[in-house]
Amino acid sequence: MSYAASSRQVRHAPSSHSGSHSAKKALTVPSTSTRAALEAAQARETALRTQAKAEAARLEQARKQNMAAAAQAAQDHARSVALSSATVAAAEQLQKTENRTQSIQSEVEDLRADQKATQADLQSDARALEPMLPVAQRLSLYPMDALLTGAGPTEDVVRGLQVMRGLGNLLETRAESLRNRQNDLVTIEGKLSRQIAELSRVEAIQSQQRAELAKQANAARIAQIQSNVAARLASSNASQEAEKQKALQAELNSVLAAEAAAMAQLQREAEAAERAARKAREAAEARHRAQSTAAAAARISGHNVIREAEPLPATVSSGHGGDGIVAGRLLTAWGQPLEGGAASGNTYSAAPGSSVRAPCSGTVEFASPFRSYGEMLILNCGHGYRFVLAGLGSIGVATGQSLVKGSSVGSMPSSGGALLVQLRNGARSVNPRSLL
After folding, report:
1. What is the fold, at CATH topology level, of the domain defined by 328-435?
2. Residue ranges covered by each domain of the chain
3. Nearest CA to 358 among 396, 391, 328?
4. Are 102 and 351 in contact (CB under 8 A)?
5. Which residues of 159-180 are buried (b: 16+ CB within 10 A; e: fewer)?
6. Distance between CA atoms of 330 and 420, rounded to whole angstroms?
7. pLDDT tens, 69-88?
8. pTM
9. Longest dimension (CA), the chain
10. Are the C-beta atoms of residues 51 and 248 closer than 8 Å to each other?
11. Pairing between β-strand 337-338 and β-strand 341-342 as defined by DSSP bridges
């Protein structure tokens, strides 16, 4: 019931004793302090309702922005996953190139070893022939003189001819061996030259592939980070607006309570005046006042109902050697006996700068240096399984980023090293072979 209604009710209350009209009139006029409190409460209520209306509009705008940010975050998440998927083929091609580079380097080393051995054989054969060359040259120029000028018997001459023939055959064999080894050396040097050229070409391709892979991985990481920041900012704005509206509504409720108290006081004063003036109609008036009070209380209670903001719907996320994770070879396998106990994971020897790929699809839970392990990555694969990759030189993904199996996650140090791959189910390590 408003102040005007209460005033009208008080003014229109008839008196059955006209002689005491002046005395009764003092009872029917509300007190100044009560009237002032009611007017102040009503003015404050009007101001607060205007402010609440404006705040409700801002809250609605913040909710819309939050919903738009959530939708954009979902799109960015899908884009991040797509970018991560795009790195799978690039990472696979880079790993093939890295394996090819290692193979060519091994062939070059073998060819250089063959070249060195052939050169050593040539030098050895040349040293063996060196003492016989003057004699062979003299015999080739004057073969008969060297035999006929001797004073020995005929059989010695015949024996000398046989020795000359054997020496000639030996020299011819040695010369043929020298020619063959020289030809082998030329062939080896040709192969070596071609392999070195091929190695340079493959290394150039590998450098381009690494740059492109880093670009794609960086784009996926940035998209995920920007999406998370925008979503958090929009959610924070909506929460702040909701808190403002909540505080404003609490103040409005307090004002309404004060207004109700003032109205109740006016009502009590009016009721006291009516009881003094209308004793005969007290019961009927009491019932009427009770009904009026109940109706007023119902209306006031209706003003106090606060409509709760509906929460946003939750988003449901749902080769050997390096085993496809890194170009390298297996050093120790899970469960293999070591000095400190059984190995808790697989350890791979990796080439310097080799790319490292995700062993499963999932979400990055940790991507940072960790103690003496170097750069470490923890990837949640779902169903309670997590991969731990330690020993990287650099990491190209961010915490919270969604990855696809086979996508690039980083690279080994430039000095090479070992990559530890551990699969954990809860608090225990398990054999990672089933998921590799």
Report:
1. Glucose Permease (Domain IIA) (2.70.70)
2. 1-304, 328-435
3. 396
4. yes
5. ebeeebeeeeeebeeeeeeeee
6. 10
7. 778 777 777 777 777 777 78
8. 0.49
9. 190
10. yes
11. antiparallel
